[in-house]
Structures are given as structure tokens and as C-alpha cells.
Amino acid sequence: MIGEIALLIKGLDTAIGLVKAGLDRKKDIEGMASEIHGFFESKQAVEAKISELKKGKDKYQGSALEEAIAISEESRKIKEMMLTIGKAYSLAGKSPEWQRIQRNAANIQKERDFQLSKSNRKKIIQDRKDAEFYVVLKYIFGVMLILIGIGGLVFVVAMNSNV
Fold first, then answer.
1. Number of domains observed in the structure of the chain
2. Per the domain annotation, does 99 fall within a domain?
3. Which of 8, 79, 82, 110 is the most buried (most CB within 10 A)?
4. Distance between CA 51 and CA 41 in Å, rounded?
């Protein structure tokens, strides 16, 4: 686990370095599409791992303080890089395009969140149906055992009364 998050953080740091180097060389923002794409891929991977850590799905092997520092540091780096990319769009005279990109991203994220909650809702409903099925199955099995027990008792009483 430590190795996995370390690799993700290293990948994010590398992507940030590539974007910063391109911007420092005054490279056109549109010409840096691959570097920016690499940053966003690394950002998504790190954010997903942080989300897993926060939800407790993936157990971190270090101390809680170390985990909190790593999460805080990576979140800060991501925010700074987002501001840097936004400034690069502004300097290139493409502020409206950057605003449109951010609005589209917000809409896409909202739709993803809705689809996720919709699929989670379906899973919860299916789990409830499965649980209800097993409860009914247990009741049927219990009633059958009771009937078999009563039948056996009647048989034993009937056999003893004929003697």
C-alpha cells in the first residue's frame, strides 16, 4: 500500500514538473495537451487513492499523522497546479475557455456523482431483496422442520398407543 501511494505521488510530482517546465519555457498552453493530460490522470489516481484511504477501504500502513500530512500535501500541490494551469490559460488570453472547461468539468462530475448514487441505490435495493428472500427461505425451512417434527411426534404417539 505504501509503495502504491508512493508511486502515485511520484507520478503526480513528475506530471506537475512537466507542466511547470513547459510553462516556464513559455510553451503554448494548447501545445502542452499531453503534459496537462498526464497531470490530470495522475491527479485523478492520487485523489482516488486518497478517497479510498479516507473511506477506510485501503489500509494505510504508516502512522495516522503521516497519512494526514501526505493527504494534505498532495491536495495542496493539486490546488496549486490547478491555479497555475488557470493562470496559463489567462495569460494566453483564453480565460473564457478555462471558465467553460471548469463549468463542463463540474457538470461532468455532477453527472458521475448522480450515476454513482443511482447505481448505489440499485445495489442497496437488490441487497434488501436478497435479504428478504433469505428470510422467507429460512421461515419456509423452519416451518418444514416444525411439520416434520410434529409428524414424527404423531407417528411415535400413534405407534405407542397401538401396543
1. 1
2. no
3. 8
4. 15
User: Which domain covers residue 71, as residue numbers?
Assistant: 2-93
What is the model's pTM? Answer: 0.55
Residue type, 150: I
Could you tell me if 45 and 8 are in contact, meaning their C-beta atoms sit under 8 angstroms apart?
Answer: yes
Q: Grid coordinates standing for 19? A: 507542466
Annotate 108-141 with b (16+ C-beta within 10 A) or e (fewer).
eeeeeeeeeeeeeeeeeeeeeeeeeeeeeeeeee
CA angle in degrees (0–180, nearest 5) for 107-11-108: 5
How does the average pLDDT of the chain come out, rounded?
82
12: number of Cβ within 10 Å? 23
For the segment 76-110, what is each residue's pLDDT rounded down to a tens digit? 888 888 888 888 888 778 888 888 888 888 888 89
pLDDT digits (tens, 9 = 90+) for 5-46: 677 777 888 888 888 888 777 777 777 777 888 888 888 888
In this structure, which amino acid lies at residue 57? K
The whole-angstrom separation of Cα 42 and Cα 104 is 20
